[in-house]
Amino acid sequence: MDPIIKIASLVRPYWRRAALALVLLTALVFMDLAIPRLIQRIIDEGIGGHDQGVVIRTALWMLGISLLSALFAIGNNVLSVLVAENVARDLRDTLFTKIQGFSFANLDEQKTGQLMVRLTSDTNAVQRVVLISLRIGTRAPLLMVGSLILMITTSPALALAMLPVLVVTALIIVLFVSRMEPLFGSVQKRLDRLNTILQENIAGVRIVKSFVRADFESARFEEASEAFTSRSIRVMRTMSSLSPVLTMCVNVGVVIVIWVGGLRAIGGDLTVGQIVAFTNYLLTTMTPLIMMAMLSNIWASGIVSARRVDELLKTVPDVREAPDAISPVGPAQGRLVFEKVFFHYDGADGENVLEGIDLAVEPGQTVAFLGATGSGKSTLVNLVPRFYDVSAGRILLDGIDIRRLSQDWLLSRIAVVPQETVLFSGTVRDNIRYGVPDAGDEAVVRAARAAQAHEFILALSKGYDTHVEERGTNLSGGQKQRIAIARALLMRPQILILDDSTSSVDVDTETRLQEALGVESQGRTTLVVAQRISTVLKADRIVVLEKGRIAAQGTHAELMAASPIYREIFDSQLGTDFPPEGPAGEVSKDGTPEASPREATVGTRGAEP
Amino acid sequence: MKIPTPRRGPVTLRSTLPPRGQGMREKIEKARDPGHALGRLLPYLRPYRRMLLAVCGLVVIYTLLDLIGPYLMGVAIDRFIAVRAAAGLAKIVGLMLLVYLLNNLFQAFSAWLMADVSQRALKALRQDLFTHLQSLPIGFFDRNPAGELMSRLTNDIDAINQAVSQNVTSLLASVLSMAGILIAMFILDKWLALAALLVVPIMFGFTEFVARYTRRGFRDLQRGLGELNAVTEEAISGQKVVKAFRRSETALAAFRSSNEAVFRAAVSANSYALLLMPLTNVLGNFFVIVLAGLGGWLALKGLVTVGLIATFINYGQNFISPVRQLANMYNSIQAALAGAERVFEVIDTPAEERDAPDAEPLTALEGEVRFEQVGFGYRPGTPVIRGMTLTARAGETLALVGPTGAGKTTLINLLTRFYEIGEGRITIDGKDIRSVRKADLRRHLGIVLQDTFLFSGSVLENIRYGRLTASDDECMEAAKMAGADPFIRQLPQGYRTSLGERAANLSQGQRQLLSIARAILADPAILILDEATSSVDTRTEARIQKALLSLMAGRTSFVIAHRLSTIRDAGQVLVIDDGRIVEQGTHRELLARRGFYHHLYLSQFKGQAI
Question: Is B26-348 CATH 1.10.10.60?
Answer without folding.
Answer: no
